């Protein structure tokens, strides 16, 4: 391996250990174990579907855009998980803290992070002030994935990039 790759792995592991082990707190345990589900399939599909079906005007359009972005964003995620079968951190790094029912599929990239970022941008486009809440919320979902021992920082970053790119592309195409 090249020195650059080794350096990147060392720093990524250091950031992962900081989030997963150094900032542990009862309050964060409660918050992260709940908020992480906002990026899960059930929540992201249900929220988008409810906006599309029950919303009116801009909210309905945002729901439809979110459903399209959510669907399209998971194509590269599925391909990358097969092409780069990276084990989850709790399976590789000793002393990783994880919580009940950890996932066992591949970690790269983070599907939860991809999902939350693909869903928020149509809402932010329709209601710009919502970005003040939705962007930090999406970042917290991404951080929760590391805190819970399920993803490395690069898994989360790539999930953020995929979700954001596909969502903004959906908005551009829709216009």
From TrEMBL:
InterPro entries: PAP2/HPO, PAP2/HPO_sf
Molecular-function annotations in GO: hydrolase activity
Keywords of the record: Cell membrane, Hydrolase, Membrane, Transmembrane, Transmembrane helix
Signal peptide: none
All copies of domain Phosphatidic acid phosphatase type 2/haloperoxidase, residue ranges: 61-171
Protein topology in the membrane: Multi-pass membrane protein
Location relative to the cell: Cell membrane
Primary location group: membrane
One CC-aspect GO term: plasma membrane
Transmembrane segment boundaries: 35-55, 61-80, 124-144, 156-174
Classification via Gene3D superfamilies: Phosphatidic acid phosphatase type 2/haloperoxidase
PANTHER family (alphabetical): DECAPRENYLPHOSPHORYL-5-PHOSPHORIBOSE PHOSPHATASE RV3807C-RELATED, SPHINGOSINE-1-PHOSPHATE PHOSPHOHYDROLASE
Name of the protein this chain belongs to: Phosphatase PAP2 family protein
Source species of the chain: Paenibacillus whitsoniae
Lineage: Bacteria, Bacillati, Bacillota, Bacilli, Bacillales
């Amino acid at each position: 391996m090249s020195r650059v790759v080794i350096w990147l792995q060392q720093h990524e592991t250091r950031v992962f250990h900081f989030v997963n082990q150094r900032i542990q707190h009862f309050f964060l345990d409660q918050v992260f174990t709940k908020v992480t589900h906002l990026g899960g399939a059930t929540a992201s599909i249900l929220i988008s579907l409810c906006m599309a079906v029950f919303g009116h005007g801009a909210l309905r359009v945002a729901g439809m855009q979110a459903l399209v972005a959510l669907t399209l964003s998971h194509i590269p995620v599925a391909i990358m998980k097969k092409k780069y079968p990276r084990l989850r951190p709790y399976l590789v790094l000793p002393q990783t803290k994880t919580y009940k029912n950890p996932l066992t599929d591949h970690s790269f990239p983070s599907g939860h992070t991809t999902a939350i970022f693909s869903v928020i941008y149509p809402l932010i486009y329709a209601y710009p002030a919502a970005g003040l809440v939705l962007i930090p919320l999406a970042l917290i979902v991404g951080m929760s994935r590391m805190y819970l021992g399920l993803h490395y920082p690069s898994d989360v970053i790539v999930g953020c990039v995929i979700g954001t790119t596909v969502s903004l592309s959906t908005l551009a195409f829709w216009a």
